[in-house]
Amino acid sequence: MNRNVCTGTWTEQTAEGGYYRSARNLGAIQLLIDPTGRRMSGKWAGFSKDSDINTGPWDLIFLDQAASKTTPYKYDRKPSDSPDGSMAMA
Q1: Which of 61, 55, 26, 27 is nearest to 41 (CA)?
Q2: Model confidence at 65: pLDDT above 70
Q3: Cβ atoms of residues 44 and 27 within 8 Å
Q4: 3-class DSSP state for residue 79?
């Protein structure tokens, strides 16, 4: 069985006044690409504040083919604001 895999890295700059105090985090990500090309699901890995290795799920779901300047604002929300509690990317 052939599986299309997407492998890469991620970075995050945390808020200045937040718990992580402007930390710059980075890690690795590996996703399986759904045969329809409309979803990628997998796992991320990265270091915690205490240098432990953390992992978690990561899903990218195709929602809209619109390419206007206003489209990103349509999906700019926290995961808790999404109908199913997940974070979806356009």
Answers
A1: 61
A2: yes
A3: yes
A4: helix
